[in-house]
Amino acid sequence: MGSLLRNQKARNALLQAVFVGALGSLVIAGALIAQQNMAAQGITSGFDFLFKPTGWEVTFSLLPAKPTDPYWWYFLIGIINTLFLGAFGLVTATIVGTVVGLARTSSNDLARLLGRSYVDVFRNIPLILQVFFWNALITHLPPPREAHEAWGFALTSRGLYVPILNVHGLAFAGAMVALLAAIVLPIWLGRTARLGSPPEQRRPLQLAAAILALACAVLILFLGRLPDTALMNVPALRGLNLQGGLRVPPEFTALVVAIAIYGGSYIAEIVRGGFKAVGRGQVEAANSLGLTPWQVFSRVRLPLALRAMLPILANQYVWLMKATTLGIAVGFADFFMIVALTINHSGQTLEAIGILMAGFLIINLSLAALFNRINKAIALKGNQLRG
Amino acid sequence: MATLAQSPNPDIALRIEGMNKYFGNFHALRNIDLTVTRGEKIVVCGPSGSGKSTMIRCINRLEEHNSGRIVVLGTELNDDVGNIDEIRREVGMVFQHFNLFPHMSVLENCVLAPMLVRKLPRQQAEEMALRFLEKVRIPEQASKYPGQLSGGQQQRVAIARALCMQPQIMLFDEPTSALDPEMISEVLDVMVTLAADGMTMICVTHEMGFARRVADRVIFMDRGEIIEEAPPETFFTASRNERTRQFLSQILNH
């Protein structure tokens, strides 16, 4: 026994077993106590509530929703809303961050000063404050009767009105998929090794694929047109309110703008760092070969900077995804808000929070896994790099 | 002023007249005068900080000179972007730290500029790249990435990359200083072959054996000035300049 305790491997195994055992009993004890307390309050624990109707309305949904729908359907709506908000927030934050980050690395003094002021201001104001600010700004816009209108868009206190096509929702989704294929398919055709031909001889094939996918998109839209309507559904004033078009609620707009501006200030610093990490030598070599400034940027600086940025960017994206939970502050029905309402109405606190945590874990672990794959695919090969 | 640009002597590859360069208050280059004829091999040496690298970096505008004139292959180097591009197309450069593009294969490194700048079709550019990779004796590494090669191999790729633009002048900025000793000769051998082919070369190097073998002239610089200019035999054995002799004794007797 004494000699077994002195064995390094045996000692490690024992320590780990004790730790796992202690942690396990803690979790089990917690669960038992919680169950007892809930039973005392007359709440049955478990996930049966998921199949009961909610009895309340959800304020924003991309899927059909009514109070007779069960809780699991509302959770799905919440996750989709969170992903929708996150997608808009991440894309716009990336655009803002890239522009500001490039301004910060520019050789132009004014651009650098503007970029720096931007980062200094927006990075140092709490995100929740910025969400409140934009929400207040939008809800204080003029009412629909005096809306600011341009190209069919209207900005009012009731939200942003956007013109849409008069097509069936499913047809619109199908057309979006076809549009995506028009971008992805040519890229895939240019890279796949399955076609024997050298990549630069595939131009006609790529062009044909893109045109075919675009034609599919147009066809789907045409077939999905709502009968007896104009092609475009433009918001127009009827009485005291705007009719037609798509209304983007103020809280959604406020959240996207706040995440874009706040996240953009962090991403700008990541972009700046990425470009700073590019070796001066590589840029000089590209210059000495006679490449134009744009070619030096697109062929050398950007690809190398991207590789330096990606791991930190992934971190930032995960962070911003979590920041979408601020939706509850302005009443946007994201996953967090739906879970909070569920707790109020059903009392199933632990179960609902468990689902919320699992949902965010799945979203963010998938995001991280995606970035790890991209990172590995484009990593610089070899370890003999100097200078 | 006009005499130089308007009546270019076709035999002259490079002419520098009264060039000065400052880094802030630091006077890095003082009244540099240098003429290089086509096919000439120049070795530039001198203690560190003497301005050797700065001088050759001025020739393709990696550094901007503050006064004086530089005329490369009949084109005046000034703020005219067209002139700078024209000169960079005809002047190749090899760096101390190779500066290959680490995200591109060896072949991609070599075809990038010919395709973008000279507008060669890919097939033609690749054929030429393979020819030059053979010349620097590493055609078998074409599909590898810079990080998978040794320092000596990387530097030879860098030479091939510069040659793929078919330059008329080659600048070498301490091409062997970052190499392990056993890799120096493989790079120098390539440079000797290049010299034998008649390339106009300006090399900043401390490889005095190389200077003896290929240089037509050795230029000694100190504190931003050209101190001495002489054929290698005279330079190494019969220099009457105090600073040259001191420098030579430091690098030859260790």
TrEMBL record, chain A:
InterPro entries per the UniProt record, alphabetical: AA_ABC_transptr_permease_3TM, ArtM/GltK/GlnP/TcyL/YhdX-like, MetI-like, MetI-like_sf
For membrane topology, the record states: Multi-pass membrane protein
Transmembrane stretches, start-end: 12-34, 71-100, 161-185, 205-224, 317-340, 352-371
Top-level division of the source organism's lineage: Bacteria
Keywords of the record: Amino-acid transport, Cell membrane, Membrane, Transmembrane, Transmembrane helix, Transport
Q: Which GO terms describe its biological process?
A: amino acid transport
Q: List where in the cell it is found.
A: Cell inner membrane; Cell membrane
Q: Which SUPFAM superfamilies match?
A: MetI-like (SSF161098)
Q: Which Pfam families match?
A: BPD_transp_1 (PF00528)
Q: State the Gene Ontology terms under molecular function.
A: transmembrane transporter activity
Domain (ABC transmembrane type-1): give its ranges. 79-371
This protein's major location comes to: membrane
Please give the family membership noted in the entry: Belongs to the binding-protein-dependent transport system permease family. HisMQ subfamily.
Q: Return the NCBIfam families for the record.
A: HEQRo_perm_3TM
Q: Which PANTHER family match?
A: AMINO-ACID ABC TRANSPORTER PERMEASE PROTEIN YHDX-RELATED, MEMBRANE COMPONENT OF AMINO ACID ABC TRANSPORTER
UniProt name for this protein: ABC transmembrane type-1 domain-containing protein
Organism this protein belongs to = Starkeya nomas
Taxonomic lineage from the root: Bacteria, Pseudomonadati, Pseudomonadota, Alphaproteobacteria, Hyphomicrobiales
TrEMBL record, chain B:
Q: Tell me, what's a Pfam family for it?
A: ABC_tran
Protein's recorded name: Amino acid ABC transporter ATP-binding protein
Q: Name one GO molecular function term.
A: ATP binding
Organism encoding this protein: Ancylobacter moscoviensis
Q: Which InterPro entries does the UniProt entry name for this protein?
A: AAA+_ATPase, ABC_ATPase_HisP-typ, ABC_transporter-like_ATP-bd, ABC_transporter-like_CS, MetN_ABC_transporter-like, P-loop_NTPase
Gene3D superfamilies the record matches: P-loop containing nucleotide triphosphate hydrolases (3.40.50.300)
* Family statement drawn from the similarity comment of this UniProt entry: Belongs to the ABC transporter superfamily.
Matching entries from CDD domains are given as: ABC_HisP_GlnQ
Q: Does the keyword Secreted apply?
A: no
Entry keyword set: ATP-binding, Nucleotide-binding, Transport
Ranges for domain ABC transporter: 14-248
